[in-house]
Specification:
438 residues; alpha/beta; Transferase, Pyrimidine Nucleoside Phosphorylase, Chain A, domain 3; Pyrimidine Nucleoside Phosphorylase, Chain A, domain 2; Aldehyde Oxidoreductase, domain 3; 4-stranded mixed sheet; 4-stranded antiparallel sheet; 13 strands; binds uracil; binds calcium ion
Length: 438
């Protein structure tokens, strides 16, 4: 087999066999197939697409390109969740303890963030003492003992995807459904989940800007799951405005603690209830969606989810007193407010712009090596559908000490994220569609 012949085959619209795809991915991972040939193949896939079998073979080849995590020592059905990016998405921090408190074991591997805000590990870092890197043995043992552990994704998980993603990033081949779907699913499969719940975001703050492409991506991932024997369900959820009120690491942890303490009934809460319900169904703890939702609401209201979060923070070395006293979380040097300049309904708060403001305030990384200020970010007091009067506080910006000089420009930018309407604005349901629900 020669790489060049396979590139030509895909270029001309042919269908690659499992052997051909494995040959290509193995060669690329080991370095025998150089980046320029992989780049050409990625571009051929970008233009020609892939049949559903090819996409599954690509997923499996990347999933098996490095270490695969064996979660079989943990009893029960291990259900993982993945969100396709988004702004102010604190769902993992809430879902993991919530679902674990309902009896579904959660063995979560997660990453650090790039771009608008931090990843789940960055957020957890804002809890003093928290250890986000567990060795494989402690990781498994902690799930066996308390039902929940979260750790950084090992560098050797799906290395083919890591290498290919970096190449796609610089060859304009990110925006391809088979490449995105196989990238996401390969990591979930390598991480050992029996079943997978996907939260595919749609809207200005998301990877997928429109419903049709999000739906296609979701269907493609659900199909891959079916073909490789992992039950997979996808939810399309709105990401026009940030999901929660908080955007930024410590601010999001605070919001997560508030929801885990039984408060806050906005979009973030509703999406968590939905995703938890599906995870409970896939984990065979709930027979139907409504039953799962009821279990989830109950464990937020009765304190069991919060209790699980406390056990988890304690087990990973964190200062558990922040759960009762979130004021102990790191705080920003400067907090500046953004006021409304009119009497009006809020029509939208553009998620992408809010994410950019949070990043410029110090909350995100532009490059992988950048450090972040865990305290920095944005807190939205007003979101879509709310009525505001001139002079009302719309939002706060929490600034790093070294970003003080950006204050005026960030206030202006954040105000520009808001659009207003004279007429009343309806709040849309956060869930657009469910795909693959049993
Ligand atoms: N996220 C991923 O993990 N992979 C992609 O290709 C796109 C988004
Ligand atoms: Ca830490």
């Amino acid at each position: 087999m020669r790489a060049v012949d396979l590139i030509a085959k895909k270029r001309d619209g042919g269908e690659l066999s499992q052997q051909e795809i494995e040959f290509f991915i193995q060669g690329f991972t080991s370095g025998e197939i150089p980046d320029y040939q992989m780049a050409a193949m990625a571009m051929a896939i970008f233009f020609r697409g892939m049949k559903s079998d090819e996409t599954s073979y690509l997923t499996l080849a990347m999933a098996h390109s490095g270490e695969t995590v064996d979660l079989s020592p943990i009893q029960g059905i291990k259900v993982d969740k993945h969100s396709t990016g988004g702004v102010g998405d604190t769902t993992t921090l809430i879902l993991a303890p919530l679902v674990a408190s309902c009896g579904v074991p959660v063995a979560k591997m997660t990453g650090r963030g790039l771009g608008h805000t931090g990843g789940t590990l960055d957020k957890l870092d804002s809890i003093p003492g928290f250890r986000g890197e567990l060795d494989r043995k402690s990781f498994i043992e902690q799930v066996q003992k308390i039902g929940l552990a979260v750790t950084g994704q090992s560098g050797d998980l799906a290395p083919a995807d890591k290498k290919l993603y970096a190449l796609r990033d610089v060859t304009a081949t990110i925006e391809s459904i088979p490449l995105i779907a196989s990238s996401v699913m390969s990591k979930k499969i390598a991480a050992g989940a029996d079943a997978i719940v996907l939260d595919v975001k749609v809207g200005s703050g998301a990877f997928m800007k429109d419903k049709d492409s999000a739906e296609l991506l979701a269907k493609t991932m659900v199909q891959i799951g079916e073909k490789v024997g992992r039950r997979t369900v996808a939810v399309l959820s709105r990401m026009d405005q940030p999901l929660g009120n908080a955007v930024g690491n410590a601010l999001e942890v605070r919001e997560a603690i508030s929801i885990l303490s039984g408060k806050n009934h906005g979009d973030l809460y509703n999406l968590c209830i939905e995703l938890a319900a599906i995870m409970l169904m896939l984990g065979q703890k709930a027979a139907a969606l409504e039953e799962g939702k009821e279990m989830a609401r109950e464990n937020l209201a009765n304190g069991k989810a919060k209790e699980m979060f406390q056990k988890f923070v304690l087990a990973q070395g964190g200062d558990v007193s922040v759960v009762e006293d979130p004021d102990k979380l790191v705080k920003a040097e400067y907090v500046v407010e953004v006021e409304s300049n009119q009497d009006s309904y809020v029509a939208n708060v553009d998620a992408l712009t809010v994410g950019q403001v949070a990043m410029l305030a110090g909350a995100g990384r532009a490059k992988k090596e950048d450090s972040i200020d865990l305290a920095a970010g944005v807190y939205l007091h007003k979101k879509r559908g709310e009525f505001v009067k001139k002079g009302d506080i719309l939002a706060e910006i929490h600034l790093s000490a070294d970003k003080k000089q950006e204050e005026d420009s960030l206030q202006k930018k954040l105000l520009s994220a808001y659009s207003f309407s004279e007429e009343e604005v309806k709040k849309d349901d956060i869930i657009i569609e469910r795909i693959g629900l049993p």
